[in-house]
Design brief:
18 helices; 22 strands; Ribosomal Protein S5, domain 2; eight-stranded mixed β-sheet; Heat Shock Protein 90; binds adenosine-5'-diphosphate; binds magnesium ion; 3 domains; Ribosomal Protein S8, Chain: A, domain 1; globular
Length: about 625
C-alpha cells in the first residue's frame, strides 16, 4: 500500500488552529486588544469598518516591537510572554500561547506597523493568508498598529458563516467593553464606520462603568471589597432594584482577565437571594485577584474559562462579600439580610446601629430630596405613591453615603459648583416668583438673582427618569379602559411593538394581541387622556425606531424611556401657571441629573445680581456672565 500520511503545511495547520481562536471579528478584536494591553499601552484605539468584516485596526502606544520581533510575531508559538511551562502558573499577561497573530494572519490580510520607544525608525510587515508579502522600514508612531483586512477572505466557509453587521458589531462591542472595563486606567477609543462609539478617558472603575453604561449607573453601584489570603475581591454590584431582565451586565475578572464562570455567578446570585424578583439578573463588575499559581487559564481556546484550586472557598468568600456589601448600603427596612461574618477580619456590625441622619453634615443638603413626596402638577395624579417617596428617601440616603464613603465618586465637587449653587438657592423656594416668559422658558426670580428654566427639556427629563424607574423597578399605575380600543399597526411596527409588550406594560399600557397586526388597549398610563391611546402608541413606536437608528447601543429601557418622554412632552401644552412651573422645578430637582436635558440642553441657568447688572451695564465691572 502506498504511504498516505502527510504533514500539513504550516498555512493549513494555522488555518485550522485559527478556527479555534478566531471565530469572528470579535475574537480578533479581543486578541489584538489584549496584545496592546500586554504591551503596556496607555491608549488603545479600535477602528472598525463593516463590523470588522472589512477592517479591524488597533493602534496602541505600547512598547512596540523590534525588527526581528515584528517578523517573528506571526509565526505560530511565537511569544515573548512564556518560556517554560512553569511560567504558565506565574502569568501576569493576557497572552501566552503565541497563537493569535499567527491565526489572524493566516485568515486575513494583515499589516503591522511598529516602532519601539526610543527607536528612530519603525518597521512594517505585510502578511496575507499566512504568507509574508513585504517588509520595510518606515516612519511611524511609537507603539504598534495592526490592520486586519477582509477577515476569512481565503476561507469562504467561515466568511459565509459570519452574521449580519449589527450582530457582529454587537459581539465586537461586547469584547471591547470587557477589555475596557478590565483597564479603567487605559484610554480607549472606538470608531465604527467613522462614527465614534466610545471615548473612554482614564479613571477608576466606577467612572469607567459610568462611561460605558451611562452616567446614571454612577448612582446604581454598590461597592464590594474583601481581602483574604486566597483572594482579593473588589468592584461593584448593581442595586437590586436596577437588576435586569436579561443577562448582560455581568463581568468577572480574574487577575485582569474576563472570565465566564457559572459557579461564581451562582455565588453572586445567591448573595442577592430574595432581593431580586425571580426573573431578574443582578448586575456586577467584580475583580478577583488570586495567586496565579492557584489557577489554570489554559483550559479553553479563548481563555475565558479558568480552573481554580480553591473554588469552594472563593465561592463562599464572594457570596459573603456581596451580601455584606448589599446589606451595608441598603437602608430600606424591608431588606432583612442576615449578617454574615467577614472571613478573616470580622466587621463591626455598624449597619445595625440605628442611623441618626440629622447629626450628619451633608454639604449637598436640599430639602426637596427628603421628606414628603411632593405632588405632581397633574391634578389627581396617581403617580405619587408612598413607595415612590420611599425610593426617593432611599436614593437620598444613598447619595449621602456615597458622598461620605466614596471619595472617588464622580459626583463630588470640591468647591461649590454652579450646580450646587442652584441647589442651594432653590432651598428657599418660598422666595421665588415663577413666570412663564414664552418660548418654552420660565424665569424664577429670587432676592439673589434669577433662574431660567427650560420647560420642555425639564419636563422631558422628569418623565424620562420616571419611565426608567417604571421600567426597572416600580411599574406605573395603569388605568383600566371603560371601552377597550383597537390599534392597528403596519407589520414592521407591529413586530416592534410586540417585542416591547413587557416594557409597555410597565409603563402602564395594558395591551393584548388581537391578530391582524392589531392590539387591544385594555388599560393606559394614568396620565394619558382617553382617546389618545392610538396616536400615542404610534408616535411612541416611531420615536423608538428612530432612537434605535440613532443610538442602537443604548439599552432598550433607555431608548424606550426617552421615546415615551419625548412623545408625551410633544403632546402636552407647556405648563403656564406659576404653580405648575414651580412643581416642575421641584420635580426636576428630584431628578438624578437635574441640569442637563436628554439632548444636552441646559435646563437650569442662574444669574446672580452681579451678572444681571453686567448685562445691563457691560462696562460696570469685569465680571462675566
Ligand atoms: P501572545 O500574546 O500569546 O504572546 P500573539 O500571537 O498574540 O501571542 O503575539 C505574539 C507576540 O507578538 C507577543 O508575545 C508580543 O511579543 C508581540 N506583540 C503582539 N502584539 C503586540 C503589540 N501590540 N505591541 C507589542 N508587541 C506585540
Ligand atoms: Mg496575544
Amino acid at each position: 500500500m502506498a504511504d498516505i500520511i502527510r504533514l500539513l503545511s504550516d498555512t493549513v495547520a494555522n488555518q485550522i488552529a485559527a478556527g479555534e481562536v478566531i471565530q469572528r471579528p470579535a475574537s480578533a478584536v479581543k486578541e489584538l486588544m489584549e496584545n496592546a494591553v500586554d504591551a503596556g499601552a496607555r491608549r488603545i484605539h479600535l477602528v472598525l469598518k463593516d463590523a470588522g468584516k472589512t477592517l479591524i485596526q488597533i493602534v496602541d502606544d505600547g512598547c512596540g516591537m523590534s525588527e526581528t520581533d515584528a517578523r517573528l510575531c506571526f509565526e505560530r508559538h511565537a511569544t515573548s510572554k512564556l518560556r517554560a511551562i512553569d511560567d504558565l502558573f506565574a502569568l501576569r499577561t493576557m497572552g501566552f500561547r503565541g497563537e493569535a497573530l499567527a491565526s489572524v494572519a493566516s485568515v486575513a490580510q494583515v499589516e503591522l506597523r511598529t516602532r519601539p520607544h526610543g527607536e528612530e525608525v519603525g518597521f512594517r510587515v505585510l502578511v496575507e493568508g499566512g504568507q509574508h508579502r513585504a517588509q520595510d522600514q518606515i516612519a511611524t508612531a511609537e507603539g504598534t498598529s495592526i490592520s486586519v483586512r477582509n477577515l476569512f477572505y481565503n476561507v469562504p466557509a467561515r466568511r459565509n458563516f459570519l452574521k449580519s453587521d449589527p450582530v457582529e458589531f454587537r459581539h465586537v462591542q461586547e469584547e471591547f467593553i470587557r477589555v475596557a472595563l478590565a483597564h479603567p486606567e487605559i484610554h480607549f477609543e472606538f470608531h465604527h464606520n467613522d462614527n465614534q462609539v466610545f471615548d473612554l478617558r482614564p479613571g477608576n472603575l466606577r467612572q469607567r462603568i459610568a462611561g460605558v453604561f451611562g452616567k446614571l449607573y454612577n448612582e446604581r453601584l454598590v461597592p464590594v471589597e474583601e481581602e483574604t489570603s486566597i483572594v482579593r475581591v473588589e468592584g461593584y454590584v448593581g442595586k437590586p432594584e436596577f437588576a435586569k431582565k436579561s443577562r448582560g451586565e455581568q463581568y468577572f475578572y480574574v487577575n485582569g482577565r474576563f472570565i465566564k464562570d457559572p459557579y461564581l455567578h451562582h455565588a453572586v446570585n445567591a448573595a442577592f437571594d430574595s432581593l431580586l424578583p425571580g426573573d431578574a439578573y443582578p448586575s456586577y463588575w467584580l475583580r478577583l485577584q488570586v495567586d496565579p499559581a492557584s489557577i489554570d487559564v489554559n483550559i479553553h481556546p479563548t481563555k475565558t474559562e479558568i480552573k481554580f484550586s480553591y473554588d469552594k472557598d472563593i465561592y463562599a468568600i464572594l457570596r459573603s462579600a456581596v451580601k455584606r456589601a448589599i446589606g451595608r448600603f441598603s437602608v430600606a427596612p424591608s431588606l432583612d439580610f442576615e449578617q454574615e461574618p467577614s472571613f478573616e477580619v470580622p466587621l463591626a456590625k455598624l449597619d445595625q446601629i440605628p442611623r441618626q441622619p440629622e447629626i450628619r453634615i451633608n454639604p449637598n443638603y436640599n430639602p426637596f430630596r427628603t421628606g414628603e413626596e411632593p405632588k405632581r402638577f397633574e391634578v389627581g395624579s396617581v403617580r405619587s405613591t408612598p413607595d415612590r417617596a420611599e425610593t426617593r428617601q432611599w436614593l437620598h440616603m444613598h447619595r449621602e453615603e456615597t458622598t461620605i464613603r466614596q471619595s472617588e465618586s464622580l459626583i463630588i465637587p470640591s468647591a461649590e459648583t454652579s450646580e450646587q449653587r442652584l441647589l442651594r438657592i432653590f432651598e428657599d423656594l418660598d422666595d421665588f416668583r415663577f413666570v412663564h416668559v414664552g418660548q418654552g422658558i420660565a424665569s424664577a426670580s429670587h432676592p439673589e438673582g434669577l433662574v431660567l428654566i427650560h420647560l420642555a427639556g425639564a419636563r422631558e427629563r422628569v418623565l424620562y427618569e420616571d419611565n426608567l424607574r417604571y421600567l426597572s423597578s416600580k411599574p406605573a399605575v395603569s388605568q383600566q379602559q371603560l371601552f377597550p380600543v383597537q390599534v392597528q399597526f403596519n407589520p414592521n411596527d407591529y413586530l416592534v411593538v410586540c417585542e416591547l409588550l413587557p416594557e409597555l406594560q410597565k409603563l402602564g399600557f395594558d395591551l393584548a394581541e388581537f391578530g391582524g397586526n392589531t392590539l387591544v388597549v385594555q388599560g393606559r398610563p394614568a396620565e394619558l387622556d382617553a382617546g389618545d391611546e392610538s396616536s400615542v402608541l404610534h408616535e411612541l413606536v416611531e420615536r423608538f425606531k428612530q432612537q434605535t437608528r440613532d443610538s442602537a447601543t443604548l439599552p432598550v429601557h433607555e431608548r424606550l424611556a426617552r421615546s415615551f418622554a419625548r412623545t408625551r412632552v410633544q403632546r402636552q401644552r407647556s405648563p403656564f401657571a406659576s404653580r405648575e412651573i414651580r412643581q416642575l422645578a421641584i420635580d426636576l430637582l428630584h431628578c438624578e441629573e437635574p441640569f442637563a436635558g436628554l439632548s444636552g440642553e441646559v435646563l437650569l441657568r442662574s444669574f446672580d445680581s452681579n451678572q444681571l447688572q453686567n448685562l445691563i451695564q457691560p462696562n460696570r465691572s469685569t465680571q462675566h456672565a
